[in-house]
Write a structure and sequence with these properties.
Order of helices and strands: EHEHEHEHHHEHEHEEEEHEH
CATH class of the largest domain: Alpha Beta
Strand order of the largest sheet: 1-11-8-7-5-6
Distance between the termini: 45 Å
CATH superfamily of the largest domain: NAD(P)-binding Rossmann-like Domain
Largest sheet: 6 strands, parallel
Radius of gyration: 19 Å
CATH architecture of the largest domain: 3-Layer(aba) Sandwich
Number of helices: 10
Strand content: 15-25%
Helix content: 25-40%
Number of domains: 2
Number of strands: 11
Length: 291
């Protein structure tokens, strides 16, 4: 069994971005600028945005935070997004999800200008991804692809199971892995909460990418020997032996499966660190497109 070290790969990507920023400075080119839109005071969202800002500082990006009270109306939020769209100083921005009740998430994401949509959620960018046209990929699927590339995982013809069909992870990664590209050409199955015989499907899979958010759902008896596991899930579970009173786990029962698989991402330290680094990679690309 070999650990897929997402933290290590993420640091490599961030170092590469930092070098690219330094080279842009030498050429008197614009420093990339990433902005985040945060609505309300959701703790996890605030924490995630703060880590994005710290990552920007590490690589030499400019960053901005546009924070609004949860009482903001959908019309007012769209107006603020349109201001960012026309701000030439900002290369890319993200709208931190989830949004408060009363604000239609789809309407908001549709208003983000495609060339600044570094989260890859605008329908135009999403459509380009589905067609195999180069564009901004959603950060978590892009991070998974980066791990596959850097660990030289050959998926050609392999059976790949994606558990979860969200627009953020499940659907895009299933599309990307089935495309006729070096990192793809897999035979992809998408399973979800209504899928029958999930255990049998898992046992028939060469790779499992799980993004269902159920703590330690996948057990040893569901895994094919020598398979590859990409665990996107992240949950807090009660742990009285921990100083924090909880521990972080994924969708996969890591301890029970680690001696049965060939490659596996840990939680934490697997897919998670890749998300922010790929968001910054998208921002670097957005800035380069404006040169």
């Amino acid at each position: 069994m070999k650990i897929i070290d997402g933290k290590k790969v993420s640091n490599e990507v961030l170092d590469e971005i930092k070098l690219a920023v330094q080279n842009r400075k030498k050429l008197n080119l614009k420093i990339p600028h990433l902005a985040a839109v945060l609505v309300g005071d959701d703790g996890p969202s605030q924490t995630y945005v703060n880590s994005k800002i710290r990552a920007c500082e590490r690589v030499g990006f400019e960053s901005s935070l546009f924070q609004f009270d949860k009482s903001i109306t959908e019309y007012e939020l769209i107006s603020e997004i349109e201001k960012i769209n026309v701000n030439d100083d900002i290369d890319g921005f993200i709208v931190q999800l989830p949004l408060p009740k009363g604000i239609n998430q789809e309407n908001i994401l549709n208003k983000v200008l495609p060339k600044k949509d570094v989260d890859g959620f605008n329908p135009i960018n999403y459509g380009k991804m589905a067609l195999g046209i180069e564009t901004f990929l959603p950060a978590t699927p892009a991070g998974i692809i980066e791990l596959i590339k850097r660990y030289s995982i050959d998926l050609k013809g392999k059976k790949c199971l994606v558990i979860g069909r969200s627009q953020i992870v499940g659907r895009p990664i299933s599309i990307l892995l089935s495309q006729n590209k070096i990192f793809g050409n897999a035979t992809v199955t998408v399973a979800h909460s209504r899928s029958n015989n999930l255990k049998e499907i898992c046992l028939d899979s060469d790779m499992i990418i799980s993004a269902i958010g159920i703590p330690e759902f996948i057990k040893k008896d569901m895994i094919k020997p020598g398979s590859i596991i990409i665990d996107v899930g992240i949950c807090r579970v009660k742990d009285d032996n921990s100083l924090k009173g909880y521990r972080i786990v994924g969708d996969v029962d890591f301890e029970s499966v680690y001696d049965k698989v060939s490659l596996i991402t840990p939680v934490p330290g697997g897919v998670g660190p890749m998300t922010i680094s790929m968001l910054l990679k998208n921002t670097l690309r957005a800035s380069s497109l404006n040169d």
